[in-house]
Sequence to fold (277 residues):
Amino acid sequence: MSIEPLKNLLARKSGLAGALVVSSVLIVALFAPFLAPYDPIEADFVNQLKGPSKKYLLGTDEMGRDILSRIIYGSRISLITGVGSVIISLVLGGIIGLVAGYYAGWFDLVVMRIMDLMMAFPYLLLALLILATFGSGTSKVILTIGIVYIPTFARITRASAITVKEQDYVEAIVALGASDLRILMRHVLLNAFPPLLVQSTLCIGYAIINSASLSFLGLGTAPPTPDWGLMMSMGREYIRDASWLITFPGMAVLITVIGFNLLGDGLRDSLDPRMRE
Fold:
């Protein structure tokens, strides 16, 4: 496997910055038990609402829990939600787009109108409707966000399928007896891989924002599990006297999402020949 795309990615400032941020968040999530100075769940009412200090670098919350430790453990929830939801939307949307674009006909017409209808709703509103119907919780948030982003991936794979199936070499391998599955997997999907990879990276950032928004509204992760959106929701009551409760989790969301967006931009530039110098 060629490492040229990786070199092109790291050669760009945006791609390098995004890769460093995302890698840092991944390392923090993986080694949370070793990096967190305190238990993120255990309450310490003696140290309630303590400001940032040498002992508590980012302060404590209304229950005396260390904010830094909760942010470190909260990275796990955010990454699991972001990556898990994108995998769901990528798989389901990819299958729908491949079949609709390659076979066309009534299936393409019906399915893509459903995709258009889903995209007509604001993402957060559609997620709220689904969660209001089936209930809240981390697993349901992952499934909900995954469903919300299905149309995005379906459109990308459909466009690739329509383009590739009209190529002369595809007609030639069809004449030689190649199966539809072989054509879809080895030619259509392969051509769709670069834009799907870029879109997946960007959607992880969006999914983290949506997950934090749903948790902020009380429809995501249940307390006392460390979650950035939940931390901001609980800290808004003390925003005047203890602004660190909402500021630092918000910064964690901001930095992580910017990292994934920069990584997506870098991947787009490195994988698209038109963007190369």
Observations:
- The CA atoms of residues 89 and 149 lie 6 Å apart.
- DSSP finds twelve helices and no strands in the chain.
